[in-house]
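Risk register update: the risk that structure generation would not scale has been downgraded. Supporting records follow, first protein first.
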Amino acid sequence: MFTYTLRRLLFAIPTLLIISFVIFALLDLAPNDPTGDLPLTIPPEVREQIRASLGLDQPFFFRYLYWLQQFFINEPLNILERMTGWQFGDGNRMRVLSWATRSPVVDLIVQRLPQTLWVVGLAYLFGVLIAVPIGVISAYKQYSIFDQIGTFLSMVGYSVPTFFTGVLLVVIFSSYLQWFPSVYDTNLVVNDFSSFFQQIKQMALPVTVLSLFNASQITRFVRASMLDNLHQDYVRTARAKGVKEKSVLLVHVLRNSLIPVVTVIALGVPTIFSGAIITEQIFRVNGLGQLLIIAVQGADIPLVQTLTFIFAVLIVLFNLIADVLYGILDPRIRYD
C-alpha cells in the first residue's frame, strides 16, 4: 500500500503540471482583459502601462513559469515562515497578487475559507450522515413505504436545483414565518451563547439546502450498492451459518457496499472547498464560491487561476484517498 501511494503521488506531479498549464493557457486566451472595465477616456498608452504593470507585456511561457514559481515555491515558503516564525531567504519574495485588490491571492482565500467550511462543510457532513442510514434501510426494506418515500424524496431533492429550494426556503421561513435570516452575516463574531445561537440561525437555511441536495445524491448510491450485495452468495452463507441479521447487514453487506460509495463521497469533498456558488449567492455567504464569481466578473485572472488549480489539486488528492480506502474496506484489494 505504501509503495502504491508513493507511486501515485509521484504520478500526480506531472498530472498537476499539465492541469496547471491547461488552466493557465485557457484563462490567458480568454477574451477578458483587466483594462476592459476602465473608462474609454483613458488613453491607449496608459492602458498599455497598466498591462505592463500586471506583467501582461511578457511572453506567455515566461508568465506561466513565473506563476509556477510563485505558487509552488514562494507561497509555501511564506506559509512556513508564518507557521514557524523563521525566515527562509528574502522575505520580500513576490507572491501571486490579485489584479483587482493587489492583495495576495492566498490571503484572500484564507479569509473566505472559514465561511465556506462552516456552511458547505457542515452541509456535506450532515448529508452523508443522513444518506447512509436512509440508503441502508431503504435497501433492506425494499419496496416498503419507507423505501418508496425515501426514493421519492431523494429523486426530488436531487432533481430540484438548489437555487429553487433556496429561494423557496427564504420565502417560507424568512419572509413569511420570519424564523431565520435570509442574509448570512459574515461579520458576526461568536463570543457568547446569544451570538452562537444567531450563528446557528443564519446557517440553518443554507446548510439545509445543501444537506438535502447532498443526501439525495448519496442515498441513491448507498441504496443501489446495498441492493447489489444483499443477494450475493456470501450473504446467504452467513445467514445459513446462523449469523445474526444485524451483523450480516452492518458487518458484511454494509462494508462491501461502502466501497463504491467511498468514491462518490471522496470526490465530493473538494466541492466543500470550492464552495456552493449558487447557494452562497442566494444567502450572501461570503465564501470561496462568491469569491470565484467576483474574480470571473472582474477578469481577475490570477485569482481564478489559483482557485481553479487548488480545486484540481483537491480532486487528484481525494482520488488517491478513495483508492487507499478501497484497500482498507476490502482486504482482497492489494496494490503492491
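Supporting record for the second protein:
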Amino acid sequence: MELLLQETRKLIDSLPEKIKKSAFKPKSLMKMTGIPSATFYNRMKYRNFTFSEVEKIVKILEFEKKIEEYIRSGEVDIKKGETLTIEEIEEKYS
C-alpha cells in the first residue's frame, strides 16, 4: 500500500513538468479537464491535483503520446516508400 502511495505522489509531483513538456497549452488542458484557470495554476504550483484531475490529465498526455507514435510510424513508412495512393485506399476500403 505504501508503495502505491509513493508512486502516486511521484506521478503528481511530476505532472507540472510533464504538462510543460506537452504540446498542449495549459488553456487547452484546462478546457479539456474542466479545471478552472486559477485552480489549475494553483495545482501546478503546489502539486496538489486531485485524483480525478490527475486521471484526466494523464489520459490526455497518453493520447498525445499515441498521436506522436502514429506520426513517427507514418514518417518511417514514407521513408520506406510504404505508402498508398488515394485510389489504392479507396479500392482497399470500398
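The chain has one domain: 2-93. On this basis the risk owner (M.S.) recommends closing the item.
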